[in-house]
Write a structure and sequence with these properties.
By secondary structure, the chain is of the alpha/beta class. It has twelve helices and 16 strands.
Amino acid sequence: MQPIEWLGDRLRILDQTQLPHHEIYLELKNYRDIITAIRELKVRGAPAIGIAAAYGIVTGSLNIRTEDEKLFRRKIDKVMDEFAASRPTAVNLFYAIDSLKKALRGKHRIEDIRKALLVQARLIHYLEENAMSDLSRLGSELLQDGFTVLTHCNTGQLATGVSYGTALGVIKAAVEQGKHIEVYADETRPLLQGARLTVWELQKLKIPVTLITDNMAGYFMHQHKIDCVITGADRIAANGDSANKIGTYSISVLARANHVPFYIAAPTSTIDVKIRSGRQIPIEERSPSEVTHLQGISTAPPHTRASNPAFDVTPHANIAAIITEKGIIRADYKRSIKAILEEDN
């Protein structure tokens, strides 16, 4: 499965809104179609959004028709701004845009700008591939043979665009080592990414999975059916506070109350050191119709008022460890995060 693939002049993505019933790939040659795909969750998951946006900006450069170098530069800046506005919470999106901007320093000829954008987009994809592989291998050390893991939302290949996921990547790596791992997957309201996507991926991997509703998590923890919780993250603050799909915070509270280790799995590209704490993380508010309707079918009375924050923030005090490709981070998170990010500098 290749959820994201660059085909030379267009981006090919697996349309996640059609899963699990239809496996449909889209080939997008217009950058605005890629922005729409990100907004409509046809491609989703923080690392995958970053990769798709990088290739989307390359596509945007190919869409610009001008020989005026200054005008071309202004237009490519506008393309980047449009991608930046597509989804506010996932920091990988902004990491990708910033890295593309840096790659353009000193480039003036249109041909050189296009070439630099493509080289950097491919590098982002390559680095995420390696990061997820290393992250998964390191995180698998936390899973003992016979463990049952609870996860929330979708954190596999679909969410990362590469061979391994974040939380599901850890599980996949543990199974590849011969460990018997079972999974409880929250359905993840309101868009059912757990039911539609996580279960679909785990079934393809032949990893035993039980689907539960979001409000069953505490019951199974209290019944001692869960050995640990692993989720992904869309943005991690400098102090370890982590934003992830709405409902993650509630699960972390339940895990702490039931003495179940709660782990975050995310590449270091998800860490935003400019954000001091979770209070500063912007939270995307999506359409109320996603709450009042389920796959287009109304589940509430007409004219019902609804709120739909797409993410919440889990405080670092509830997190037993953050699994990254550079190592497993534990409290004191502010000091540990700073140290692990400085290793390569």
